Amino acid sequence: MAPPPPSAANVSQPSVDSLAAGSRMAHAAGPDTVTQPIALVSERLPWRHTFISLKVPNFRIFAMGHFVAVIALWMQRIAQDWLVLQLSGSVTAVGITVALQFTPSLFLGPWGGMMADRFPKRRILILCQSVAACLAAVLAILALSHHIEVWHVYMIAFVLGLVTVLDQPARQVFVNELVGPKYLRNAISVNSTIFQLGGLIGPALAGLLLTAVGAGWAFAANAVACCSTVTMLIMLRKNELYVSTPVPKRKGMLQEGLRYALSKPTIYWPWLMAGFVAVFAMSLPVLLAAFADHIYHAGAGGYGLLNAMVALGALAGAITSARRRQLRLRSVVLCAGMYGLMLCLAALAPSMVWLSIAMVLSGFWCLMFLTAANQLVQVSANVSIRGRVMSLYIMVLIGGQAIGGPTMGWIAEHLNPHAALLVSGGVPALAAVTVAVVLARRSELRLKVNVRDRRRMVRIVAQSA
């Protein structure tokens, strides 16, 4: 049996300043909001320990179910977007679908985090996956019977967004209950690897299904996968979970989570960068649909291929992040900036081949940013308030896509996809440079270049160094 999880009162406070060195909290927390230390690895991990969190039996069971579910989820996402594009002929309509699915998180995200803190996460996930299975089954029936219309997809996307409000914060915090604080960072990277591996397989399968038999079977596959996730959750060994004590209901819970998060630079700076990335750079499937259909005339197969290239790069990023030795705020900013830069380069790609290569690089840096930001926010928050903190982070990340989806779709349709992709990457890149300058001035850091040191020609050091 796994050892009992540490209580909030026994968790130690970090001691290194995150703004200067990337690894300590700049503000001391109160007695009820003590923070877990950020895990640092002094030596490079052996390859056999890249996914060490999988040694935990419960996490292995969860990971298997999650892998199947993610493949099917990607299949449904690609099929849904392509179906709307074919039914409406409008890229803006695809953006509206994305907006409807993510808008609930923009307005109800903090409430979902409060529910994750108050109720058992496992039960929440079982309920959410059961409802998601029903929604996917309805889509499958409508599509296979050829009665589906755009408004059907809109409505189901919105209801699925309501399910996501509860599912996402509970899922994020549940990882800690599966592996405990020791393997939390690694488990987050493993989850990202699974998601991106599914993103590599799912779009390819979706492209084949869309070409061969239509979107209905992709929806049906997702319904079955959601049922398999429920089965895996039921199979977990309850006595080996690191279950945190539910927080009793009281007034001001949401405000408490917001105040807590704003008091920690390692939470609110990743939030800020996540906002820019979410609004401008996370609606990439919408833009890729425009490239595949209007620019290269590659059809559903080409759309699936471009999404698979993004997932291929993201998979490499997930493996790299699992082996990251140090977790630093400046790494979050750097990765966001590199992701924006790669999208700008993709906007200049002269052919679909070069666009595919740019998508691999974009996927790599996108995943490096998302994983680093997720890890930094989670390990900077006490377990008793982590659900609310993560829900606010998810509200920014997912809710931003509700704004960015139709905006990027409108730009792609009324200007051109190249301009939309340039805006998509340029704004986050500019935001990253601005944040980096602000953090450097506050922490009195500067760039130091040493051409004689081939391994570390460019370093960030203190002004006095």
SSE layout and pairings?
Blueprint (H helix, E strand, L loop, with lengths): L56 H32 L2 H28 L2 H24 L5 H30 L4 H29 L3 H20 L17 H10 L2 H17 L2 H12 L3 H24 L6 H19 L4 H28 L6 H29 L2 H27 L1 E5 L8 E5 L3
Antiparallel strand pairs: 1-2
> How many domains make up the 3D coordinates?
1
Q: What pattern of helices and strands is seen along the backbone? A: HHHHHHHHHHHHHHEE
Radius of gyration: 22 Å
| Count of DSSP-assigned helices | 14
Kindly name the structural category: mainly alpha
Low-confidence stretches at least 5 residues in length (pLDDT < 50)?
Answer: 1-43
**What is the beta-strand fraction?**
under 5%
Transmembrane segments: 58-76, 82-103, 124-144, 150-166, 187-210, 216-236, 268-292, 298-319, 331-349, 355-377, 389-412, 418-440
Protein name: MFS transporter
Pfam family, one: MFS_3
Keywords: Cell membrane, Membrane, Transmembrane, Transmembrane helix, Transport
Describe this entry's structure for a reader.
The chain has 465 residues and is mostly helical. The chain has a single domain (53-244, 252-462), classed as Growth Hormone, Chain: A. It has helices spanning 57-88, 91-118, 121-144, 150-179, 184-212, 216-235, 253-262, 265-281, 284-295, 299-322, 329-347, 352-379, 386-414, 417-443, and strands at residues 445-449, 458-462. The protein is globular. Residues 1-43 have low confidence and may be disordered.
